[in-house]
Specification:
- By secondary structure, this protein is an all-alpha fold.
- The chain starts with 8 loop residues before the first helix and ends in a 16-residue tail after the last helix.
- The chain has 4 helices and no strands.
Length: about 80
Amino acid sequence: MAKKRPKLMSDQIRQAIDDSGLTRYRISKETGISETALALFYNGQRGLSMKALNALGEYLQLTITLGRKPEKKGK
């Protein structure tokens, strides 16, 4: 049985964009992130700067929770 791959943070942000019901154009205009940068990020072709991620997270009212993977114990 294949292990389920944990969702990447970028996947979760893309999902939040989809769930918001807002257009990427509107998100771009309201956050100051260029339409091109947002489109490239959304399509998985490029990352966003921390400044852009902060603006996007604040605009979409996202909370980032840090967690750690459980440590693997030796055999």
